[in-house]
Amino acid sequence: MNKPASNKYEETTLSSQPIFQGRVVSLQVDTVRLPNGETATREIIRHPGAVAVLALIEDRMLVVEQYRKALGKSQVEIPAGKLEPEEDLVEAAKRELEEETGYRAESLKHLSSFYTSPGFADEILHLYVAEHLEKGEVHLDEDEFLDCESITLEQAQQYIREQRISDSKTIMAVYAWQLYKLTGSF
Amino acid sequence: MNKPASNKYEETTLSSQPIFQGRVVSLQVDTVRLPNGETATREIIRHPGAVAVLALIEDRMLVVEQYRKALGKSQVEIPAGKLEPEEDLVEAAKRELEEETGYRAESLKHLSSFYTSPGFADEILHLYVAEHLEKGEVHLDEDEFLDCESITLEQAQQYIREQRISDSKTIMAVYAWQLYKLTGSF
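^ Those are the sequences you sent over. The predicted structure of the assembly is below.
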């Protein structure tokens, strides 16, 4: 089904310098040979990947508000989190949904998987939609503090205008939800 | 118009360690005080921000195919690039569009601005739509190699299924285009 990736203009790695190995990301600087024979450097962030869930309860979606240190402000986002090593994607999405919102999903449907910043990072985010939720229990990570609420599509669009929602996965989920309401399918 | 950001659960910076200052990104590790009084570390990537353009010529959008070293493969994306210091957003978007595709836009409409990876990076991407294009000249950066083509909405959706298109800004642009065709407005 998937065509093999075209690798025209491939950049050959001449050397790779590890700079940092952290809890969430690592950073390396690769020296590459360009298609014209010249060399260049590429700063590359490695990330384990993440899952996110558009979780719908009747006509409302679940969102969480949390402080984002990288942005220096709080943001409203759909439930999400990074993958644990070897973790199954659907299990990870169900885990994050329940940890952050207290809701359990029987089944999830895959909506899309996308690279967040292909210019410098390999992070991939797998987005799912969940309907038919049942109430479980919130249990946050020890360094995680957030509030959960459920909002309508109109509220979500208002939050986007107010920049309370301003991240790629959540805006993408709102677009997908809007398309679902117009076309009847995800 | 924009509400002040809520900063409930704010994390106070206790110290900030610079790790790396590169050509594109920088990395720091902050030690923070959490709302419960405990401390934690936050790995933070700083990025200058970027612009991207959904450029439509009649019923086709312009895309470029280029090798992405962070992903180890080529990808099809809308024209985009990072901001130069002090650069005006609309001028930057026009510049990247013309450099990569050879098309000039008289005017651009702002579609959305979003953080690509708020968990660890401050990169913000400003997405514009351009219609009424006129042919100018391609002039790529010296370390930039890419091919430009124009594709229909159906081809774009096929590319997404084939994972030739798989980054957040391009999938978001395709969603916005699809919504435009259904609703008549961006």
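DSSP finds three helices and twelve strands in chain A. Chain A has a mean pLDDT of 94.

Shout if you want it in another format.
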